[in-house]
């Protein structure tokens, strides 16, 4: 059955919304069942949770209280987003903080694979391999979030993300307390065969050896003072911004020195000098420098994600609930990435997101009447129809 067809065959004009949600169809079909604990039936299904959280991020709500007020008082949200019996504060937050994480992880991983298959790698960097920028981002937490340890009288959680530079989408994610060591997350965020791109915090000679042994390539900025034992030098291209290119052993012999050879590239841009270590020996020095420059894409993503999808306006306090919220924010971004590519052959932009919001509102207004169709349920419900 089409996403846009009601049981009696009436065609609905909800193209933009169905396009946005369509990638969820197969993910929901294969998702584990969410079952009630005890004899009481669920007041909210996992599909209810998912569409509410997508709506929260898509509409830039500023808090859980704001979201619940809209779900109870705004006609479109109350009719098409909230569960049929309405939504209650206690039921919403209990569900957010205790249920649905297994299903949310499944949907995110399934959708991430879809996005990877659908979205092309940017042509200008297609010859650089599978690049993954890795970084952590702090989330301000409340003092009651005791698990979010950071420092005295300050609580923060930290999102660790692997970001697909070529396609402009998130990949793997982990969540820890604020003072957790980011370097420990690399094994979860970068697969063998991929090239992790890191800032200076990730400089660790032991890791450089281990990554090479496991086939995890790296491009990592290092301190200018890093000790280098030169094994051989590479030719420098005249008039290049690269001034140094050598294969070295990094660190102090018999103390911290790398066992494996490492290539170090030094270059200067806008009066700033960069030193970068890598195992990508086959690339030109200029391309190594370009790869490190592309690390900035993850900073841009974090900034855009925080500002326009309100992912760090906390509506949960537990690790379970916060991870639910973060995953829903990533799912919303992936849906937008697929939608913008398929509808406009573009990457995500706030202009396209605002345009989409307006289309959804206009479609809902055109389809209101004595018995308005549940547009979003139709789009989500396709996975259960033949």
Could you walk me through the main structural features you see in this protein, from its secondary elements to its overall organization?
With 386 residues, this protein is of the alpha+beta class. Among the domains are: 15-107 and 319-384, no CATH class; 215-294, no CATH class. It has helices spanning 15-21, 24-29, 46-58, 64-73, 75-80, 89-98, 101-118, 186-189, 205-214, 285-293, 296-309, 319-344, 350-366, 375-381; strands at residues 131-140, 149-151, 154-164, 169-177, 195-198, 217-221, 228-233, 242-250, 262-269, 272-278. Strands 1, 2, 3, 4, 5, 6, 7, 8, 9 and 10 form a ten-stranded mixed β-sheet that branches. A hairpin with a 2-residue loop joins strand 2 (149-151) and strand 3 (154-164). It is elongated. Mean pLDDT is 86; it is low at 1-14 and 369-386.
